[in-house]
Fold:
Amino acid sequence: QVHRLRGQLASTMLYLCAAWLVLQASALPLCREQHSSGGAWRNCKAQIGGLAIQGSDAYQAQFKTTFQDYLTAKLGASYGLEFESIPLNFDENFEYVGGKRLDFIYSNPAAYACMMVEFSVTTVASMVNFRKGNALEKFAGVMFVRNDSDFYKVEDLRRARVEAVSISGLGAMQLQQAELLALGLDVMTDVKRLTFSNNQDIIVTDVESGYADVGFVRTDMIDRSVAAGTTKWEYFRVINEIPDTDFPFKRSTLFTPEWPLGALTHVPFEIIRAVLSALWELDRNSTDATLKDPAIAGKFATWVAPMNYLELLGILEGIGYYSPKERKCLRAEDVYEAVKCPRGYVKQSKDKAFCSDDCKIGYTCLCQPCTKLQDPELLLTVSSLATAWNRTVDAIAVAGLTKFESQCQRMKVCMEAVVGQTVKWALLDHIGSESRKEINAPLLSSVEIRLRVDAPWQPMTSENTTLGNGLATERYIAVGSAMLTGTHVVQIRINGAQADLSPVVAVHHEPPILCGPGEKAEPDGKCSVCPPGSVRGSDGGCYPCEPGQWSRAGDASCTACEVGTSNPAYGASSCKDCSTGKVAKQMGSKSCDACARGKYSNISGLSACYACPAANVMTTANTASESIEDCVCFAGYFHECRGGDCNVKNISSHHFDVAGFCQPCLAGMECKGEVDSPNAMSQTKEGEQRHKAPWLPPGTMAIGNTVYICGKSGDGASCLGGNLDGKASMCAPNSGGVCCAECDAGFMYKDGTCDKCTAGSKAGRVLLPLGGLAAVAALVVKTFPREPVGILTRKTFLEGMHTDLLASTFMFFVNLLQTTWIFARSEAIKFPSALKYAFRGAGDVFDLSIFAMECSFSGGRKAYAVTHTVVVNAFPLGPFCVLGLMYMVGRAGKKRAIGRHRFPDSAIAASTSLSILMSFFLVIVNACVNTGFADYAHPNGERSLSFFPYILTTDTAATTIRAVCLVGIFVWCVLGLSLVAYLLYKLPSKVKDIKFRRSTLTMTSKFKPEAPWWVLVQMSLNLSIAMAQSLFQEAEWQIAWMTSCFMFYQCLLISYRPYFCPVTYYCDVASTFGKALILTAAVPYQMSPDGKGTYVTAVAVVVYMVVIGHCAYAMTLWIRFMVRDEITDISKVWEDLGGRLVAKLKFPRGASMEALMHEADAAASLRAASSKDGACVTLPVGPPPRLGGGGSGDGVKGQTNGRPPASDFEWNWNFTGIGAGSGKPRVPED
Structure:
């Protein structure tokens, strides 16, 4: 249906084209008018030749109607053309086209593809075949046998008689041949007989009759015979059938396009177009009989545009029928040339390749045209001949060296013989000249041999011989002998080309001439003595002795070198003694070994090196040492020398008193050699090898051989370190003494270095007294009462509350300064330089370092240390003495009844003394504890005071300092803590004692009534922090101890919340947590080698900002009161800060215990009411009470400022005019 539709469309287009041609007829002259002079068209008669594979009659019956009758009728009237159909056989096919005896050619696709290449034929149209009601544009080949035969698979064809149409037949030969070649079978050479009948109908008949076992035809040929009634399909079976449900015929090969019609080069284009137009109109489904009848007669459906036929050239090239180089195909008569024999076979002559027996007349028969060559075709052998030796030769040895293979093989050893031995090379031809002529094999016209690659070719003579099977043949002989020893390549050349069996290998040995030991055989047959350094080998030649051996002339064997000698070369006549610094431990040494480090050899020819004395502490700087003087101390030991005595070669330095020569490297020293010899304590200076002195790293120094560490962490900048050779000072300029901490006059020791005293630093002698006087004045003013009449007014009372808040937060800030100053004073804990100087600069006032008293001191450094210790321990006595004086003056003024406002208030003086003790207790304890008892160890076991590194604990000055510190500890720690504990103990019994309560006001005012003892906890914490430097030397332990103290204090602080004001509480929490956080952040800084990547500075800044923020807030409340009279209930500020935050964020909250208890009380009341008959009871009304009691409290106006009710332990603001039970402070109107 598809082809029918295409035919109808084509017919419609052709009708339109025809109409256009009719309209243009007047423009196209008739053929006779165009070619009136005759010429190529021979009176306008076009000839169409066609390949008649089924004979001329069958061809004319099928295609004459189309190619002659139809085209003449179609184009005769319009063009004046007359067409003639000419049937051709396979031979005439190419002959007529090549001779241009035709105008158009209709041929099978393969032959047509060749014509396209060879003769430039132009394709006009392709036929669409019509078989079994199908329009087919392609066909294939079939391989078939009789159904009752025993041929089932391709391999069975090797014993079959195969019949095809011709070597030019595509569907009946070439397609099958290509398919079988792909499967490993060449039908031209591998089958029993190959017959060409030139007619496919005959092939079907011959297979059915049994004349042929296998037939090759195109796909629809058997079906044609079946349709003609000449045979039946059940008689046959297809070999190598390819399943295909889309194609109507059985097939055994791939497809190829249907037959084309082509025009030769001389045909004008308008004639080609006219023929194409006429053919396209043909359609077996047309209603026009003139268009339908030719298609039915020709058994085709229609004609279409040209298909691709050039791809068939690949198939023809694959089977050897087409040469791309020559652009030519084989013809049908070129059957002999189409035979291609495989390797190892040769094509027989034509009279033997084509067989006539059982070959019908008119057939062409091939009967196994290839003959297998003898395997091997040529045989090369070599044998020994009698040799006339001209010298004394050991015949037995010759026989042992001679070996001949029975057959020489390519690239393998064929023989082994001796030089001068006569041998015969023989090349045997297994085919023979006569046999070669019969089978058309190449003759051996020239045979040559070359015994070496550099030798000339020599011909091999031919001699007749007979093989074991009686075949007469030839053998080619060459006789000769080798003149050179070694392995040689032997080549055979036949007819000027290298033979397949060539080359082979021949080995020639030195002739075994009978000579004495130590002699070798000469080519003239004489024996000569082997020269010194060589001996005779197993093959009779003289060979040099190996390294490590030697020989004299004529020696039968080589002698190994003695110990202590060596020989590195071949062919030595003697061995040489090892030089100094080297030895040969074994016999036959090829070279002398250098003495290892720690050993030497001072005599040549030794077999072992001498070890340095006391090898465990002495070694050599290099290998191959030549003298005992090269021995130096091993790493970890050193030789104490001075000046020229340090030269290693100085024999006076080698007493070899091992115990005194090499001393163990002391702790703190580094005894290590140079980079190229780290285990030897020596170095090269000024061209001399010298003993190397121990090295001290920066931060250490030595006095004599005693090493001192400058500072706990060894970071004293004045200690330069260096070599312990006494040539250079280990201290920086202007410093000296132990740890380089004793500065010259005009310099002061600070942060591990001696700084020059400046004009500003010398002003300390003035600033210190002035500062003291200013402090005395401030204390004196502080002791006078604020009230004009000496009583407490309401305003001064409120001012005192706000001032107390400000003082409390400021006290935490001061304590933070003291604590970080303690951190920085610790020589073990490391901080970034900027942070450390910030901590130290802010706190140096605490130990009076800021006044640079050292620059004003004229005595020695140790005397200054003692003086400084006395000053810092006694300095706190100054304010206490002033306050004590004010206390006594105030008491005296009261007794004399003089107006109190003109005299100091003794209670204020006492309270201020306690305030100073609590506020500066940390630095007071630091002065009396760490100044004398904080020390660190040196490598030699001695210890230095941390505050004064140049003072050893064994010095008298250290004893004096510690005695002063013990007094300070007793006064400030023991008595100070005892005083505070005593006052706390007496506090409950002094509730009514207004004077006592006012004297202890600064100790108790910031705490809740039930927690005044917290001041003792604070002082204990400060004592623990100050003692860290004296208790521990390592930074890790100091950090762990202080962090633990802070966290323990923090836990207690959070648990008890002892402060009256929440702001004070949160300031203490932030300050304590911040101190612990600074220490924690310092840990990575200790571990970091370069101090990078840490955040301790940022943490310190944040902590200080938080504490300063608290102080600023307290300052704001104080200013608002003092300037604007704004009263703040400080007991409520920041109260329940966490609860407020939760409420602000609207987190869900559960019922409180107070609410649950209130509900339980209400339920109990209801149950009690139900037990009474109609009695009325009073139920709890209002909000649940708070656990612990207490009123609402609203500061000054509240009952108890939000605190629980007063107990006996609670002190009340019962100053003049203020009562404990009134619920409000009673302030006199004045």
